[in-house]
Amino acid sequence: MIANPQASGLTPDEYLAWEREQPIKHEYMDGEVYAMTGGTLTHNDITLNLYSQLRPHLRKRGCRINVADVKVQVSQRGPYFYPDVVVSCDERDRRATEAIQYPKLIVEVLSPSTAGFDRGDKFRFYRRISTLQEYVLIDAEKVGIDCYRKTSGGKWELTAYPDDVADEENPILELVSLDFQCPLALVYEEVELPEPSHRWHE
């Protein structure tokens, strides 16, 4: 993300009005707006693969799923973020036009420039959303998914795929909040991952 000094010090309402007129997307935190950088083909392919697997399952459950161009509102004061995939099963979001406020699942596909923020401060903000039950981080450099689940006691527990599953040869991604399972291979189907020597490190 790149800060925009020309749109500094905005209130949430001012940000929303300003954002509607912009040719590119901007996220919002503490009065500041940040331009969204473009994703890679790998990033896009992973996002669409997961969306394709989830959509038929969610249609039967009355949930809505959105990708990339839909904001999530953490609170009335912000922040506002654009996750790669967001699922809401809350009736209050069914007719939302500005932003999703009651997500059940949020997915971010990691990139070198945003991975640290997605794992750190962004997750800290997302945890403030009372309806959020799972936060999923998908590696775009190698096969690997970190799924954080909120327990009944309000704690967040990590399951790493494929490392924490019994069958590492044919690992299955499970999203408990949506009663959904699919092979990890389908999330990465026809995705061209970089050679190991070119992978980034946090």
UniProtKB/TrEMBL annotation:
InterPro entries: Nuclease_put_TT1808, Restrct_endonuc-II-like, Uma2. It comes from the Bacteria. Residues 13-173 form the Putative restriction endonuclease domain. SUPFAM superfamilies: Restriction endonuclease-like. CDD domains: DUF820-like. Pfam families: Uma2. This is Putative restriction endonuclease domain-containing protein. It comes from Parathermosynechococcus lividus PCC 6715. The lineage of its organism: Bacteria, Bacillati, Cyanobacteriota, Cyanophyceae, Acaryochloridales.
